[in-house]
Amino acid sequence: MIKRHVRAASLLGICLWAGFASATAEVGYQDWQFPNDANPSMPTVATNTAGTATATIVVGYLGLGWLDSLSSFGTQTGLWDLGFQNSDDLAHDTRGQAVLSVPNPLPATSNTNTYTDLNLAVVQFVDGFLYTGGLGFSISGAVYSGRTIVEALPGLGGNWVQDQFHWRLTPSPAQISLCITGAVRGTLLDGIIIDTVSAVRPALQLLITSVAKLNQALTISWEGGLPPYQIYVTSNLLSDGPWQAVGLPVSGTSAEIPLNGPVEFIRVRGSN
Fold first, then answer.
1. Could you tell me if residue 247 is left (phi over 0), alpha (psi between -120 and 50 degrees) or otherwise beta?
2. Tens of pLDDT, residues 57-72
3. What is the pLDDT of residues 85-105, one digit of tens each?
4. Among the listed residues 90, 165, 105, 153, the one whose alpha carbon sits nearest the alpha carbon of residue 125
5. 191: Cα within 13 Å, side-chain hemisphere
6. pTM tops 0.90
7. Taking Cα atoms as reference points, which of 234, 239, 242, 243 lies closest to residue 265?
8. Of 139 and 72, more confident
9. 178 and 217 in contact (C-beta within 8 Å)?
10. For residue 203, is pLDDT > 80?
11. DSSP 8-state class, residue 249
12. Residue closest to 149 by CA, chosen among 135, 160, 137, 164
């Protein structure tokens, strides 16, 4: 729910009004456990009001594809062997990929004052030699903000390791597209989790910063709020007369209006 607060100030005999909005947020969650070889794969568990996410697996060079389990690699089930880089064909990237498409519960639409925090958890086998765990990521419009090793599960000759990777996307996209590329020497993938928190930043309070009169015109400047802005005038706050819009909406933070009387009451409103 958008809440509006009204602020009034008197300057040069003119009443100035403004408002601001509180923050809203939406969360999304997708957990791929890969119980079968469906490709594209739907999340095993998901909560996303915007739609259904998908994971498309591209098996690389000599990759075995989906496996129910793999002997001597622990008790994990539902695995993807993504393959590896062909050392005889370095001109082409032959590593496997997982291409994720996730609808965003809170897309930016026309509001650029949004962001999405994306957390990616990947469970893969790591032995430090063949399976190095060195994944690559491609995600448009994102700023990488870190990696967290969540847990290491015991296994023969290596570990099933869950890592978390974090990004922020500004503004929030309507669709999140993330490509995970396997390591050069190979990737055994056991699971993927994506959770998102998408929010609208609270707009700064719309505050009139200056008013300047020149002849029969008034220049008003302000800060905060969200564009587009509209200026309204009325001649009497005590009457039931409506506020009249003056000029067209503006995207900037200043506007000039004519003075049609000795005293008018003026209000500036943003889109929030």
1. left
2. 999 999 999 999 999 8
3. 999 999 999 999 999 999 998
4. 153
5. 18
6. no
7. 234
8. 139
9. no
10. no
11. E
12. 164
